[in-house]
Amino acid sequence: MNTDLVITFGPWFFVGASYAAGLVLMVAEVWKLRARQRRALQQAAQPLDDEQRWDT
Amino acid sequence: MNTLRFFTFAAPSRFYALAGKLVPWFWAAAALFAAAGLYLGFAVAPTDATQGEVYRIIFLHVPAAWMSMVLYLAMAFWAAIGWAFKARTATVLAQSIAPTGAMFTVLALWTGALWGKPTWGTYWVWDARLTSEFILLLLYLGYMALVAAIDDPRRADRAGALLAIVGAVNVPIIYFSVKWWNTLHQGASVSLTQSPKMAATMLNAMLLMSLACWAYAFAVVFMRTRSALLERERETAWVGQLAGRKA
């Protein structure tokens, strides 16, 4: 079955699957980081409650 | 004077500003190096005489594998600095390196499996190089899980630093595994002490892609560090000022 995959799709299938995975992983990582930065700034803009203010 | 300047950027507020200025430059460098590396690797480098087209996976596989090891050492280094000097920024930096290191490890294992099938005839074997690289992934995941599992940030920092430092012993094992044991994985094609065993075009493409991965890693690690600093220092005045918090 796996050998068929090699014969059917040829080397470019494996090359494509490698680089596609790299692209997906990197885009997903950056996407998540941008969302995290937005969320962190929004949370930081919220007023502190009494306990947090005491800590500072 | 230089020492003083170095420690100046250990302050979270200053590091946040500096990293924010550097990130666009790292993105530009990553894009330029990746474009040049992919052009050389796919348009200029010839088909390999024995492996055919599938060898082009190495332009991503080798840089990803290098990054997985280098980032682990960087993570352990900054975790140790953070532990020894109680430096918050260093600890946050170490914790921000871990997900990117894990991502490169997954990529190295995935691309290695896809290269292995057409060339070795198998996606995976439990040889020393592959197994020790897999253990590296478990170390990254273990480090992230451990830090996330402990509520007290200072205790989490210390426990994480200990695991990161102890786990660093795995990196030389990965590197030297192909020399110490008889593995299916081939030996190093690039060495600081020997001339490379591949054509100059192929080597240049691989080095350019490595530079692209380095620049990418700096960019995303600094982005994550900035977010983590905002979250961790939320109650401080500098974050309040930055986010425009009302009293």
Description:
- The complex is a heterodimer of chains A (56) and B (247).
- With 56 residues, chain A is an all-alpha fold.
- Chain A is built from three helices and no strands.
- The longest helix of chain A has 35 residues.
- The model of chain A has no long low-confidence stretch (mean pLDDT 84).
- Chain B is built from nine helices and no strands.
- The mean pLDDT of chain B is 92.
- At the A-B interface, α1, α2 and α3 of A face α3, α4, α8 and α9 of B.
Summarize the structure.
The complex is a heterodimer of chains A (56) and B (247). With 56 residues, chain A is an all-alpha fold.
What secondary-structure arrangement, pairings included, does this model have?
The complex is a heterodimer of chains A (56) and B (247).
Chain A: H1 2-9, H2 11-45, H3 50-55
Chain B: H1 2-8, H2 12-44, H3 58-85, H4 88-120, H5 128-149, H6 153-167, H7 170-180, H8 200-232, H9 237-243
Helix pairs in contact in B: 2-8, 3-4, 3-6, 3-8, 4-5, 4-8, 5-6, 5-7
